[in-house]
Q: What sequence folds into this?
């Protein structure tokens, strides 16, 4: 079962965070990844971002709480992850990537773990710092982002069996692909809107004439 | 019975639906607003109300064709310049005319005759300044390219300042605004001069050009210029430094200046002796007037008036607004509008403080308004004055009054918070800084609060830390023992 969470899978999750090449290899080729765990991590990340916007210390928190909309913040956090997974899959299937969509999704979400840990730590500690100490927290946050980026690159490279250059190129291409997907999505949406309004006005007209 | 009750109820409803207006109906004209930390517009009550309008009717029949500059003296006189009629009108604080100057007379009441035999008459004057220290009235006689200095009490001729022989540069000597500082140095503004403000010594000799007004650097222009040939560059037109439009002196003797040039990187200046801009920018929005307008146009500053305690009002020609800032550069309130109602502006040209009142001239409406502070405006001014001079309790009192009248004023919360911080009431100070959205001072208050908590709970904290250290050491020892046993 790809989705079940077993003790062994959990230990490979932990292993992948410190030994990404080794860990993600096991996850990809020995079926040690859990889709459910990945999904939970993604939700946890979205929730944490909302908590951080609301409860991070005042010194660091520049959110306008009067205008904070947690639902849209949550959706925007998650949709970025899903969009990237999807666009990476569309690109790598064209360029001989070995990873499946579920593999990519697992890599992205597993890598999020460091961001979750970092964000939670920063959010908690930021309630007890002054502006001079914010710098330390910022560097912790930067460190976590760097580690996340490393995990992502290493993980994607492992599951697709890419060289470093090819891997970076594919990631760049997936960002471009994400932009194209967004563009087509918006286009589709506006077209649909026009179609609906066209048919509804035709309906109106018919109702009046008959 | 039922009918009377109904009638009373209707009357009550009518009365409550009417907005509370001043008797002259101008409070709605000066409804104010300010920007909060997130640059959102927050409304405030009207800080000023129209008190009097000065038109040619106040001038005993002398035509008033324009109001180009206004200045006031400490004893409450208003000096008003009309460049089209080439006159300087002297009025008292109530708008009653005291004197109108056109021909300049000497102490024997004879018209001053110049070297070439002509009479000394004002000619296209655009600026006026009353120098309190020497009791002198400086008139920038623009078209005649000179500055006329009069006795400030009887308006008799004192001396004439013409183009200094040692003056360098290409700027024409056409002084349009004039200011004199406490060391009697004379600062002249020439419209559209890119070399800066002309600084003259007390005796009228040339000292230097003063103040640098940096043009905004446009990256695309820069790119084109770097690849253009010399011949192309010739044709491209130079980027000149923007000109200053108006000057004033603040209480500490710094020259404050404004520019309305679109290409200027900054629009309000507080120039130190070296000519560098040392304007304090502690506010949550930059000192540029309106932060964001629907059509993207920005405020165009034409004049600035400074109180001795650093609170300044800048006049915006584009939207007919007055921006009140305190000495820290925090926006207090914005009011005024363009239109045809009494108290509104068409082409506002000049602003000056008359005590706590404001005198604002409009060159298109050919009139000057005297505005007096409302209860809210007075509290705002008093609070900032007390704060500037370090009278903390008075400042807090006034800030509290400001907040009673308008809870949108973030600066007032911060003002109260600073006083609490000074009294080491950290917890309360933190609350006020949070309301005022001031993270810098919140952090200072928090630092105090944190060390207070640490000190009062030192026992528990020390015990917890000790236990933690003991646990770490203990686990290390246990681990080492295990390792050793394993290796055996």
A:
């Amino acid at each position: 079962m790809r989705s079940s969470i077993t003790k062994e899978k959990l230990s490979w999750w932990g292993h992948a965070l410190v030994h990404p090449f080794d860990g993600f290899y096991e996850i990809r080729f020995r079926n040690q990844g859990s889709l459910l765990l990945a999904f939970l991590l993604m939700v946890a990340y979205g929730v944490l971002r909302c908590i951080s916007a609301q409860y991070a210390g005042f010194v660091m928190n520049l959110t306008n709480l009067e205008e904070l909309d947690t639902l849209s913040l949550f959706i925007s956090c998650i949709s970025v992850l899903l969009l990237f997974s999807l666009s990476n899959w569309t690109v790598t299937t064209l360029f001989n990537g070995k990873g499946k969509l579920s593999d990519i999704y697992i890599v992205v979400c597993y890598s999020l773990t460091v961001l979750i840990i970092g964000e939670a730590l920063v959010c908690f500690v930021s309630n007890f710092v002054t502006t001079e100490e914010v710098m330390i927290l910022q560097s912790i946050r930067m460190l976590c982002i760097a580690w996340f980026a490393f995990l992502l690159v290493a993980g994607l490279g492992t599951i697709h069996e890419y060289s470093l250059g090819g891997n970076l190129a594919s990631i760049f291409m997936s960002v471009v692909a994400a932009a194209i997907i967004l563009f087509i999505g918006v286009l589709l949406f506006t077209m649909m809107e026009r179609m609906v309004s066209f048919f509804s006005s035709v309906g109106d007209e018919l109702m009046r004439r008959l | 019975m039922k009918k009377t009750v109904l009638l009373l109820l209707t009357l009550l409803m009518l009365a409550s639906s009417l907005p509370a207006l001043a008797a002259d109906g101008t409070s709605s004209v000066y409804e104010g607003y300010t920007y909060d930390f997130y640059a959102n517009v927050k409304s405030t009550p009207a800080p000023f109300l129209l008190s009097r309008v000065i038109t040619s009717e106040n001038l005993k029949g002398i035509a008033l064709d324009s109001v180009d500059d206004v200045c006031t003296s400490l004893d409450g006189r208003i000096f008003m310049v009309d460049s089209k009629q080439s006159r300087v009108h002297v009025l008292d604080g109530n708008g009653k005319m005291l004197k109108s100057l056109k021909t300049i007379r000497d102490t024997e009441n004879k018209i001053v005759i110049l070297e070439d035999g002509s009479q000394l008459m004002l000619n296209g004057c655009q600026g006026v300044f009353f120098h309190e220290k020497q009791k002198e009235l400086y008139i920038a006689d623009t078209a005649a390219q000179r500055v006329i200095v009069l006795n400030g009490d009887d308006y008799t001729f004192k001396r004439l300042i013409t183009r200094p022989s040692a003056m360098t540069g290409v700027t024409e000597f056409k002084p349009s605004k004039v200011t004199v500082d406490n060391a009697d140095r004379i600062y002249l503004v020439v419209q559209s001069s890119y070399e800066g403000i002309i600084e003259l010594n007390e005796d009228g000799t040339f000292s230097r050009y003063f103040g640098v007004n940096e043009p905004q650097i446009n990256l695309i222009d820069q790119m084109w210029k770097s690849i253009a040939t010399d011949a192309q560059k010739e044709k491209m037109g130079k980027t000149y430094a923007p000109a200053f439009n108006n000057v004033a002196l603040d209480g500490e003797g710094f020259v404050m200046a404004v520019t309305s040039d679109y290409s200027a990187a900054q629009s309000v200046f507080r120039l130190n002796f070296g000519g560098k801009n040392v304007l304090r920018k502690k506010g949550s929005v930059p000192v540029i007037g309106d932060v964001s307008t629907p059509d993207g146009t920005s405020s165009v500053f034409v004049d600035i008036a400074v109180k001795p305690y650093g609170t300044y009002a800048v006049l915006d020609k584009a939207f007919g607004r007055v921006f009140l800032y305190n000495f820290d550069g925090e926006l207090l309130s914005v009011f005024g509008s363009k239109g045809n109602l009494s108290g509104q502006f068409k082409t506002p040209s000049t602003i000056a403080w008359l005590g706590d009142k404001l005198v604002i001239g409009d060159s298109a409406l050919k009139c000057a308004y005297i505005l007096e502070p409302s209860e809210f405006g007075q509290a705002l001014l008093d609070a900032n004055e007390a704060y500037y001079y370090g009278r903390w309790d008075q400042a807090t009192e006034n800030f509290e009054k400001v907040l009673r009248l308008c809870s949108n004023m973030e600066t007032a919360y911060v003002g109260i918070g600073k006083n609490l911080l000074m009294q080491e009431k950290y917890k309360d100070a933190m609350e006020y800084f949070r309301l005022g959205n001031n993270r810098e001072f919140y952090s200072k208050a928090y630092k105090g609060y944190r060390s207070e908590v640490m000190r009062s709970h030192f026992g528990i904290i020390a015990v917890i830390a000790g236990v933690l250290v003991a646990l770490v050491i203990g686990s290390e020892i246990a681990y080492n023992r295990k390792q050793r046993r394993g290796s055996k």
